[in-house]
Amino acid sequence: MIPPQKQMTGMLGHPVAENPIDRMFDAVYAHYGLPWQFWKNDIACEADLAAAIAALLPLGYRGMAITVPYKVAVIPLLDAVDDDVRAIGAANYITIEQGRRIGHNNDGKGVVRAIEKVVPLAGQHVVMLGAGGAGRAMAVEIAWAGAAQLTLVTRREQQGREVAEIVTRASGVPCAWQPWQGEVHVPSGTTLLMNATHLGCAPELEPVPICWDSVSADCTAVDVITNPRLTPFLLAARDHGCRVVDGVEMLVQLAMQIFERWTGVCPEEAVFQRAVSEALGEPSIPAV
């Protein structure tokens, strides 16, 4: 009997070494008995990105995740995009359908599900640090989920103002830009503070320069970093008395949606939670 052919999926980005997504997906594929594999690919520049996207069809890939810094640059390289990508202006994964590479974005859907496990988003006054490809998707989805207002804090004015306009245009929710100059002073009345930058990612573990005296202890702190689970930003927030939402929870929520889209299998959340904990070397989660 000929064994079933391996189905290939993966991720394109830079850097990707510390992301646990490949070990997580491979463990879930194995759990469901699927002959699928997940490959991380470190892509050095946009020229290489174009070559990689062009190669997906001849190499036989079934799907590809897109991470920083290519979530915007990948769009013109695709055959089609969905409504979310058109509204947000960024894509975080690709499906291969009848020989066409189609871009999708569920970054924001993952973060909304993760946050709402801790606090409702309705009525929140949100400050987001950074507004890259993932940040813009998250900002739009947070606005769609009922946030009262958003403030984007970025070092690049053009990027910050552009994403603020996208958020307001897509949702009708007021969104302002604030320059990031040195230590960030969080506006009074902020109820949810989110790090959408790569500050704090392993192995550098850089702290996010926040003036914690300007942050209320009632604020909820959110980080998109997936490794480590508790970043310097979240540790500082927790020490300040804030509730925290980690990037691993976001990864699980969005990965479950991507897995189902690629494979047609509706996964159990406990399977993904156990797989990502093992990938990060955390204490094992008992099977349920």
Write up this protein:
The protein has 288 residues and is of the alpha/beta class. It has two domains: 7-105 and 249-279, Leucine Dehydrogenase, chain A, domain 1 (Rossmann fold), CATH 3.40.50.10860; 108-245, 3-Layer(aba) Sandwich (Rossmann fold), CATH 3.40.50.720. 36% of the residues lie in helices and 20% in strands. The chain contains nine helices and twelve strands. The longest helix is centred in the C-terminal third of the chain and has 17 residues, at 247-263. The radius of gyration is 19 Å and the shape is globular. The mean pLDDT is 94.
Gist?
This protein is about 35% helix and about 20% strand. The chain is of the alpha/beta class and about 290 residues long.
Chart the SSEs and their pairings:
Elements: E1 7-13, H1 21-31, E2 36-42, H2 46-59, E3 61-66, E4 80-81, H3 83-88, E5 93-97, E6 100-104, H4 107-116, E7 125-129, H5 133-144, E8 149-154, H6 157-171, E9 175-179, E10 192-195, E11 220-223, H7 232-239, E12 243-245, H8 247-263, H9 269-279
Parallel strand pairs: 1-2, 1-3, 4-6, 7-8, 7-10, 8-9, 10-11, 11-12
Antiparallel strand pairs: 3-5, 5-6
CATH class category of the largest domain: Alpha Beta
- CATH architecture annotation of the largest domain: 3-Layer(aba) Sandwich
User: What is the total number of structural domains?
Assistant: 2
Annotation field: number of helices = 9
**Proportion of strand residues:** 15-25%
- CATH topology (level 3) name of the largest domain: Rossmann fold
